[in-house]
Amino acid sequence: MATPIPVNQCAFRLDEVAAATGGELFGGPETVVRGVTSDTRTLDRGALFVALKGADRDGHAYLGEAARRGATAAIVARGCRLAGGERLAAIEVDDTLAALGDLARHHLRRIRAAGPFACVAIGGAVGKTSTKELCAAAVRALFGETLATPGNLNNLIGVPMTIFMINERYRAAVLECGTNTRGEIARLARIVEPDVAAVLNVDVEHSEGLGTLEEIADEEAALFSTARRAVVASAEERLVLERVPRGAELLTFGAEAAADVRVAGRAPAACGEGAGGGRSRVTLALSPRLVAAGAPARLEVALALLGAAAARNAAAAVAATAALRARPLEADELSALARALEGVAPVAGRLQIRVLGGLLVIDDTYNANPRSVRAALDAAHESAAASGARMVVALGDMLELGAFAPAMHTEAVANVMRLAPAAFIAVGPEMGAAVGAAGFTGRAGMHVAPDSAAGAEIVCGLVHAGDVVLVKGSRGIRMERIVEALGERFGSRTEN
Question: Residues 159-176, buried b or exposed e (16+ Cβ, 10 A)?
Fold first, then answer.
């Protein structure tokens, strides 16, 4: 489910590129390049090619191909400008990935210098993508044309390539920032320099690369380090709040009474209830300091997103938008925010409702970590209860948890069993081991599958019309195979 890198038409003079990256220019300083790319397959004539080194390939091996396809210049590592036997104008740098970020930061700065432009950065363990979509809709309603990170382009390549898409027609951007390595968020923060930085939560995620929960909190909170106007955090997230920079303007969200944007009420709807199926009625209460005199301090929103976590994400989006506005919101602006939030549909593979024949499948196959599993289970249980349906859970391994993996899988299995689903299909070696360690092997409704292909056979053989089926797991387990198999067996349409 990797998101393709988008094509851009961002233009630079070569001396501008050299100055922004601290590189040495070999070529005409006044030469103009248009379009920045690291992929020769999408390279247009006149482009700037960035030779990135990856785990399994080195972009310097493609310099000749870039020249043949019409690239004007390349950013290369020092001493590599003639690699491939083709001459290109070149900017030699110490680190091409760092240079990509430096150039993106320069572009964002010149966009800001040219006129009003607002930027929100969103990080955290869980909910980044859904919150990004909610926040982008809200920002768009108040500020105008807004660019949101396409798909999952939230790393040191994806964020800069997204920034290069920004042109004069945009008035704002909402950028998702993710990490699986220490120091990555700090580097992204230096690239984006957001007006508002929002960190949603901290939990066990990518622990192989990030370490303990406190170290994960340090990593995520680094997003606050370059915030130009305000920071946003959950009122319930102690580890995040402890890391808010001293003196920073802080807005909070959540269910706590003191939150600036509080989830004051939520009435879930049964999935599949006609046109309003799957929508939750959410009430958000805003702090008096966020609303203008005479404006209502509450938002009533019919969210097309499942679960309590979606309501918190909506609160985070409103808090970030209010922080960006930097003045009390008027009544018409609050109405516009509510309409914008109601128009946001689930992102593919993230608590997405699929009606397959008589089944209601909750497709949450994009990825998994302990917190997102808890949120998905709560949403599925709530939907099944509201519909009076059986709940079936197919849950795959959570990857990249390092030493936390056994305990986190045992906890996930216990959370499933506490909800007493009609059937539980544990997929993958970690889930299978956790089922055995907890003594649940052989229980009625319990099934263990070595992989998602075997899991698909089991699920297809036991579900029937009327069931609510949750399918979730980490990307590497490919739990979407189960959704695909159900679609082939029962027919497919997407409800929201």
Answer: bbbbbbbbeeebbbbbbb
pLDDT, tens only, 262-282 = 999 998 865 554 333 458 899
Q: Is the CB of residue 189 less than 8 Å from the CB of residue 177?
A: yes
Question: And the tokens for 386?
Answer: 């509201």
Q: Could you tell me which residues come within 8 angstroms of residue 47 by beta carbon, excluding any fewer than 6 positions away?
A: 33, 34, 35, 36, 37, 66, 70, 71, 72
Secondary structure E strands in 260-321 = 261-267, 280-286, 298-303
At 202, is the secondary structure helix, strand, or coil? coil
Q: CATH topology for 352-494?
A: Protein-Tyrosine Phosphatase; Chain A (3.90.190)
- Whether pTM > 0.90 for this model: the answer is yes
Backbone angles phi, psi at 343, to 5 degrees: -85, 0
* Parallel, antiparallel or unpaired: strands 172-176 and 118-123: parallel
- Dist CA 122 CA 135 (whole Å): 9
Residue 446 contacts residue 431 (beta carbons within 8 Å):
no
Strand 280-286 versus strand 261-267 pairing type: antiparallel
The tokens of 426 are what?
Answer: 């544990």
Rounded CA separation 60/368 (Å): 35
Take residue 485 and report the two structure tokens written for it. 């198999």
Query: How is the chain split into domains, by residue range?
Result: 11-94, 116-260+305-329, 352-494
Read off the pLDDT of residues 140-180 as tens digits, 9 standing for 90 and up.
999 999 999 999 899 999 999 999 999 999 999 999 999 98
Please tell me what DSSP assigns to residue 164. T
Instruction: Count CB atoms within 10 A of the CB of residue 250.
Output: 17
The answer to whether 63 and 76 are in contact (CB under 8 A) is: yes
